[in-house]
Each structure stands twice: as structure tokens, then as C-alpha cells.
Amino acid sequence: MNNTWIIDSSFALCFLLPDEHSKEVDDMFELYAQGERKLCSSPLLFFEVYNGLASAVRRKRIDQKKAAELMNLFHTLKIPTIECEYALSLDLAFEYSLSFYDATYVALAKANKLPLLTLDSKLKEIFSR
């Protein structure tokens, strides 16, 4: 059984943000920390996660100190990235009216025949096609 999963920013932010935790997400990151699961993503993941933390500060969900702590925590996870097929990502973005960022996660998972971990229902539906 392949134990490698592609994660998107919604999944990562659910793990990081105190008001978004879910057992499913926390369990997956625990398995990753124990070496029982492999997580990887697009190089865009870090930009999206850090932007999500900045947005959480602007919306007063967390303060700047907490954002810095969460950024450091995420950085220590050392989630590897895989270059995605940018042409496929762009095609998917056009076909399904996705942001290019979201399309890269779907393209990466499809191209590598790996499951996609996302909390975005539209991405789940597109990936399952």
C-alpha cells in the first residue's frame, strides 16, 4: 500500500489554526510525525499556508506572535515538495474554474496517482473524477 499523500493548504491550515482542528487532520499529522505516513505537496503550499496565517492575523483569529509560532511549527514539519506539471495545472484551472494554486494540488495528485488530502469539497469532487 502506498502511504504517500498530497496535502493542500486547507488541510495544513486546519492542523495549524487553533479554531479549525479536526480529529481526521490531527490524526494524519500524527501518523506523519511517527513516520507511518508520507505527506508531500506543491512548492506553493508554503506560500499559501503562510498567507493563510497572515489572513488569520488580519481577521483577529490569532495574533502575530501565534502566527510566528505556527509558521515555525509548520516549517519544522519539513513537508517535501514535488514539482507539478504546470501545463496540467493551468488546464485544470481553466476547465474547473479553479485558482492556479488549487489546480496544482489536483494536478500533482493526479499526475503521481496519489490521494489528495483537502478540506475543499470542490477539489475533492474534481479529484475523484
Description of the molecule:
- The chain has 129 residues and is mainly α.
- It has one domain: Rossmann fold (3-Layer(aba) Sandwich).
- Helix content is 61%, strand content 7%.
- A 3-stranded parallel beta sheet has the order 2-1-3.
- It is globular.
- The model has no long low-confidence stretch (mean pLDDT 95).
Query: Radius of gyration over alpha carbons?
Result: 14 Å
| Number of alpha- plus pi-helical segments | 7
Largest β-sheet summary? 3 strands, parallel
Helix content: 55-70%
* CATH superfamily descriptor: 5'-nuclease
Q: Please state the second-level CATH architecture.
A: 3-Layer(aba) Sandwich
Total count of strands: 3
Q: What count of domains describes the coordinates?
A: 1
Strand content: 5-15%
- Average predicted confidence as pLDDT: 95
**Going across the major beta sheet, what is the strand order?**
2-1-3
Kindly provide the name of the CATH class. Alpha Beta
Low-pLDDT stretches are none
CA-to-CA gap between the ends?
A: 22 Å
How do the helices and strands follow one another from N- to C-terminus? EHHEHHHHEH
Structural class: mainly alpha
Q: Which term fits the overall shape?
A: globular
The CATH topology label is: Rossmann fold
